[in-house]
Amino acid sequence: MPAYLKSHSRFYVNRGLKPPAPSLTCVQLSAMVILMQVQEYDQLVAITIENDQCGTLWKTIEPYLSAGKKGVVLDLSQVGYLNSVSIASIIGARNKTSTAGKKMVVANLRDSIKSIFRVLKLERLFDLDLNYDKAAELVCK
Fold this sequence. Notes:
By secondary structure, the protein is an alpha/beta fold.
């Protein structure tokens, strides 16, 4: 089992809850395939970006927030590079989530991604040092 799934499962097992089976969202735009693993829990949605493309992030998040979830944990542990479209998509999804009165946090950022976020001064929008457990707790507060 991948480390990020162990972390997701551990968060719920430690609280006496059964973690759900993950689902995989695959969106194909021309030759580009966007993979996002989505796990739905009682109060939050955990989304793991499987590559550096996340242009459809808001379309993936919105139905869950409309259904009453408190927020989103965006796990970037599998991402080694983000292009400008992906960064804009993350910021846009965060802003729309915030406007809806919900929370979106990022977790498990690699050092290379933290550097990009810091250059863009995105530490004003996101805590860059959260692991999955701390991010989930922050969303569930």
